[in-house]
């Protein structure tokens, strides 16, 4: 499906940049328009793929291009004050050509954390297209203020979007790596998963798998109903002769070359579906109780089959208890991989969110306590013991 993407803040902008790069590399055709919004000039200048004319610096009169320093209330205020500047960039998007908006942000910081729910609310008021969020939760080692920001932004963002797709940095943290190098890899993981998911609805129907190709309406229907979503992914390399572009890739004789028997193909798909759903999800959670699900199997057409999807779908129905499990193909002729992507929408049993909220509440209490204490300490310092001195005015 074709998306208008709005990257808010540093993380939002960098992930947006990665999406554009992915789109160019794979010809997925999902990023119809891209707008990056930030209060920090340097972050906008660091982007590589977002066109310069689509980079919007907000809050110049308040923070002079220096960012909001993890103050997400200020981030939200500035986004509201300067919403016309954001709208100015969105005005250049041919909205009739997009299937949905996707607002991306890291929820632990300031600009994206505060601004993304504001812009989502604004978009929903103006356009009829669905507005989705892609929210990134901070790593547990980032500290209390980031957790508190994320917990408050999460509550607001879920309320303002048609569905919030969540990625949890904490579950994907790699030890022993520089933060920057770590994020690069993590961002690649993000775009692979969401790229296949959204790319699935962008395939020209045709050929012998037409009836089982995922349509963008199936993605939209799976996300409809709101709430929180998570995505699972698993892939396996296959020997796809057509990927080398050799003679064997052509039709041979009367029929298409069958590289392996269908039982193999089916078994591979069913085990990939299980790995995707039971492995590391973008937001780890219990899949039992997910309201809706969508299964996408991607790869060269000869390695996809209806039976595999049907079995995978049935298995997902059993595991989630959901009656709304959709499924389909995403044929990628030149690829040498078969992948399963599972979108679980409307998940409610998410211990990580409860933990995040608990830590956020503790952080909030600590912050209040420290503030009170330092006010008292300052008063003790400035005032003389017996109150004999008087200030000038
Ligand atoms: P903002 O610019 O004020 O919106 O804040 P940032 O986007 O810099 O940071 C917000 C949070 O996003 C951080 O606490 C990190 O958890 C996360 N983050 C920052 N950069 C990246 C990135 O490139 N990738 C990912 N996955 N997360 C990031």
Automatic annotation (TrEMBL):
* Stored InterPro entries: CetZ, CetZ_C, FtsZ/CetZ, Tubulin/FtsZ-like_C, Tubulin/FtsZ_GTPase_sf, Tubulin_CS, Tubulin_FtsZ_GTPase
Against Gene3D superfamilies, the record matches this protein to:
Tubulin/FtsZ, C-terminal domain, Tubulin/FtsZ, GTPase domain
What's in the keyword line of the UniProt record? Cell cycle, Cell division, Cell shape, Coiled coil, Cytoplasm, GTP-binding, Nucleotide-binding
> Which coarse location class applies to the principal site listed for this UniProt protein?
cytoplasm
Q: Which GO terms describe its biological process?
A: cell division; microtubule-based process; regulation of cell shape
Task: Offer a single GO CC term for the protein.
Answer: microtubule
Supply the SMART domains for this chain. Tubulin (SM00864)
The subcellular localization recorded is:
Cytoplasm
Task: Name the SUPFAM superfamilies for this protein.
Answer: Tubulin nucleotide-binding domain-like (SSF52490)
Give binding positions for GTP.
10-14, 110-112, 142, 169, 187
For this chain, the family text in UniProt reads: Belongs to the CetZ family.
Name of this chain's protein: Tubulin-like protein CetZ
Encoding gene (name): cetZ
